[in-house]
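for ur thesis appendix - GFA family protein. copy paste whatever u need, i formatted it the way the template wanted (i think)
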Amino acid sequence: MPESKTYHGQCHCGAVQYDVVTDLGSMGDCNCSRCRRLGWVLQSAPASQFTLTSGADNLTTYRFNTENIEHQFCKTCGVESFARGRDGKGTETVMVNVNCLEPPVAVDRSTIKHWDGANW
Ligand SMILES: [Zn+2]
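the 3d part is after this line
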């Protein structure tokens, strides 16, 4: 089991910055209409483990389909570095875009989980 630690994430221009405590133990991608366009790699974490340290006023929210997930992207550079939602128990959850972590994290796409979001 990988160890939990604090990772730093940010959008491309750096306006949006955050810290998240996670073990990156359940990284995944998704084939829904939005995720397949983005090609992002997700890691969910309880919202209590996530701290937005910069850029709250530089975020725009996009919702689609069931509108349960708040896709948050930077008004300046357009990068979605995280999204907010709730897990099956109603706990506030953050989905971090692993590709936005700095320093970069190696992602082996052959071992990550593949969510069938297209057929939910
Ligand atoms: Zn930005």
